Amino acid sequence: MHVSIDKILNIIPSKYELVYVVAKRSHQMKETNHYQMNDRDYHSKKNIGKALEEIAENLIHVKRD
Fold first, then answer.
1. Is 51:25 a contact under the CB 8 Å cutoff?
2. Which of 14, 7, 20, 24 is CA-nearest to residue 58?
3. In this structure, how many other beta carbons lie within 10 angstroms of the beta carbon of residue 50?
4. pLDDT tens sequence across 39-54
5. In whole angstroms, what is the distance from residue 65 CA to residue 28 CA?
6. Among residues 44, 52, 63, which one has the least CA distance to residue 25?
7. What is the CA radius of gyration of the chain?
8. Please, what is the Cα angle at 26 between 64 and 19, to 5 degrees?
9. Please, is 21 exposed, middle or buried when counting C-beta atoms within 10 Å of its C-beta (0-12, 13-18, 19+)?
10. Which of 5, 21, 40, 55 has the fewest Cβ atoms nearer than 10 Å?
């Protein structure tokens, strides 16, 4: 599965916010070893790619004030 940047930017419209969210989620994965999907469901091996996949699957939600 290739994660479409267009699909992701429809979910998080700012590329700067996207970079922040992906970096933060990737760091959380590294620190807690908690993942939203089963390991076999990820196509990416690295946490950055896994975070992008979670966003594409609408598993990550950004709160706006």
1. yes
2. 7
3. 22
4. 999 999 999 999 999 9
5. 22
6. 52
7. 11
8. 50
9. buried
10. 40
Q: Give the whole-angstrom CA distance, residue 11 versus residue 27.
A: 20
7-30: average pLDDT: 94
Cα–Cα distance for residue pair 24/51, rounded to 1 Å: 9
62 confidence band (pLDDT: 50, 70, 90): confident
How far apart CA 33 and CA 36 sit, in angstroms, is: 10
Task: Confirm if 12 and 55 have CB atoms less than 8 A apart.
Answer: yes
Closest to 54 measured CA to CA, from 13, 7, 17: 7
